[in-house]
Amino acid sequence: MAQNLKHPRETLTLSTGRQVDYMSLPVLAESAGIDLDGLPYSVRILLESVARRQGEPGFAPAHLDALSAWTPGGTRSELPFLPGRILLQDFTGVPCVVDLAALRSASTRAGADPARIEPMLRTDLVIDHSVQLDETGTACALQHNMEIEFRRNAERYRFLKWGQNAFDTLNVLPPGLGICHQVNMEHLADVVSVREDGLACPDTLVGTDSHTTTINCLGVLGWGVGGIEAEAALLGQPMPMLSPRVVGFRFTGRLREGVTATDLALTVVRMLREKGVVGHFVEFFGDGVEALSLADRCPVANMAPEYGATTGFFPVDGRTIEYLRETGRTEEHCELVEQYCRAQGLWREPGAAAPGYDDTLELDLGEVESAIAGPRKPHEQMTLSGLPEEFGEDFGRESGPREADVPDYGTLRDGAVIIASVTSCTNTSNPDLMIGAALVARKAAERGLRPPYYTRTSFAPGSRVVRDYLEKAGLMDAFDALGFQVAAYGCATCIGNSGPCPAAVDQAVREHGLNVAAVLSGNRNFEGRVSPLTRANYLCSPPLVIAYALAGRVDIDLSAEPVGHDRDGQPVYLRDLWFTEEELAQYRPMTADPASYRAQYGDQDRVNPEWNRLAAPGGAVFEWEADSTYVREPPFFEGCGQPAGKLDDVREAAILALLGDFITTDHISPAGEIPKDGPAAAYLRGHGVDDADFNSFGSRRGNHEVMMRGTFANIRIRNRLVEREGGWTKYLGGDGSEQECSIFEASERYRADGRPMVVVAGKMYGAGSSRDWAAKGPALLGVRAVIAESFERIHRSNLVGMGVIPFQFREGETAQTLGLSGRERITIEGLARLKPGGDVEVVARPPGGGELRFTAVSRVDTDLEREYIRHGGVLRYVLRKMLNTED
């Protein structure tokens, strides 16, 4: 059928006289007999992409035929996807550029032209993840943190400047500009792009951060992928995917006054986690969507990884155009977006009939309540009144609070809030939330309320525009008065760069084993992420962060108990501080100034003069420094000058770790502080690095030696082979001996023995951030396969991208039901005949003799992914194709 489809280039004429061509979806649909109105809007965008790319490598008529036949509940089919652009942040971006540099080095050694290694797609890298909050609560915090950031990261930044100069299509946005997702919304996103050949098309992207889905609020189809997938895509390799199952989520009614977009997002997260939408597209529709500003839609789209979906999509409508105007896009571009989307059937009209969906669910916005989520997962939602009881149940407060006197810091106790941070792209993208938090802060300051001394407060907006409009509104002083001075423009606390707590607080928490808390307006609260001190981490709206900071504890019912007492000793309740719709409306016009956005993004040299002064090496091929502890040439491409050969079975593998449910990429991938007693610290000291200069794991992602040593080293990970938390396991010798040691040390010994390794886990293995090192690390340790009950979408793809084979237990079977102890030797047979979704035989041999056989299901989902596995990963596959050594 696809060979007979009409693909005419039709023309739009704008009011300026400019003419823009496009490929007409309605004409394509008519010629193919497709009910375009019956397709979800996100599927329409995929259809346009596959149709437009017919004739390009990897795109076949059969793909278009299959997607044209999409129906609710229909069979899912394999299709390629190549986005229009790539979005990187620096934690995942540095390894990406390292790999590109390594590819050029490998090409040079093979006698090929290194310039062939060049991003084929527009690639934007925003430096936003590395800033740490070393100083907070002072007027100079921002300046001092930026100075420290450059001192710590100068080597990384010089390398990124080399990359910006060496690669024509790589654009690096300097530190201090904002968080990549908010910058994407306010500046980078086109909604409709015009290619070099003059053809208009939907703006699509993938990003190396889970929360790339933020951009779905603008009607831009994009999602997070691993850095490995992104690298393959930017080198022109289409990403294999399955045609999506799409869940429609109907909103009705409107939010009640005082209920925030954060409360809505947390409610949606809980509902969709309960529904089960892992790997699905979610598309929002219904009359309630009109009642949400685009900024209100942002937290809902941002948190798609928390409800497990690939996307949380809002189609383009009038709110989109309104936002584009407010953020400084030109009038001509706004007209192009509206005309194009209307012509293509991509414009959602109020009251329009819903498309067909595989499944639906519904929420009356009027039923949403103020909410908080925690203490460990974003979908653990509760009401404000329910938090005290939940905290007690989570942390065993049967005998009441334990207390520890802390000199000069008042009294610390279980439930104390030691970190309170207004942070993250999730909520600082929403002006109502920022204004609301400022109003709560101002009213509290006027009553004489302050956070207790032990609460470390910080403010890290996702954009410089936020401070600009708060200052114009006269509200920045309210944040400052409570110790929430701007300390960074970056992810900060949300990524784990919360900085050190005062020494006395740190000492008291550790010595007395206190269960203290962090409260942040972020999207992630996994164990060990925010701070090594806080076992309880709660997500909530920025105004509630202010309130809990004032209360100084989380075991409080803010709906009924006073936040604190004023200068006269009178109780002050949350209702006394909360903002009204009338107050928000008074300040909204100040947040929608196009000139402010143009000024902040128009002169990026002004943002960070130190970045401009930074000297960078030149040349098309990077000159690796053998003694660098930040950037080293990785070993991923060794042997690529030879054909791949067949896929060997896994034989007599040791189980490196036996893990439970919801093992996140925070547990697997090195993140946050580098523990002073771990293998990574020993490596750095051995290379002359002082403890004070360790920096973070994230900042050293360009050094595989550091990252290998931090893999599976999270302080809260629980390996069932040992009795304690942390990155420990048992090395099981061939003579039957056992020795408890670090996972890194065990892997070194197994590799010396010539034994492969596997990891065994429970449900949702690899949930969380799209960290490529959660796959790179295990691959370098020698892990050949992971057998789990289920996988999070991005991590499964990352494993395949590194040549690690994901297998899934059959329904109803687990490591526990099969009786696996972790001491077995594992053989996986028949891999040379591995089929997508096919069964394999697993043989587990315990130390005492005998064997257990069970069947596992391959989660290598496509034929192309099987090729990636055979080559040892997608980048090795791409390099062999470029060097013509593939067989």
Structure description:
It holds the Pfam family Aconitase. Catalyzes the isomerization of citrate to isocitrate via cis-aconitate. Its EC number is 4.2.1.3. It is an enzyme of class 4 (lyase). Its cofactor is [4Fe-4S] cluster. The structure is a single chain. 35% of the residues lie in helices and 18% in strands. It has a 7-stranded mixed barrel. The model has no long low-confidence stretch (mean pLDDT 92). The chain has 4 domains: 80 residues, no CATH class; 187 residues, 2-Layer Sandwich (Aconitase, domain 3); 219 residues, Aconitase, domain 3; 181 residues, Aconitase, domain 4, CATH 3.20.19.10. The protein has 887 residues and is α/β, with parallel strands linked by helices. α2 runs antiparallel to α3 and α26 packs antiparallel against α27. β7 and β8 form a beta hairpin. The protein is globular, with a radius of gyration of 27 Å.
Helix count, per DSSP?
33
How many distinct domains?
A: 4
Task: Give the biggest sheet.
Answer: 7 strands, mixed, barrel
Provide the CATH top-level class of the largest domain.
Alpha Beta
Assign the CATH topology of the largest domain: Aconitase, domain 3
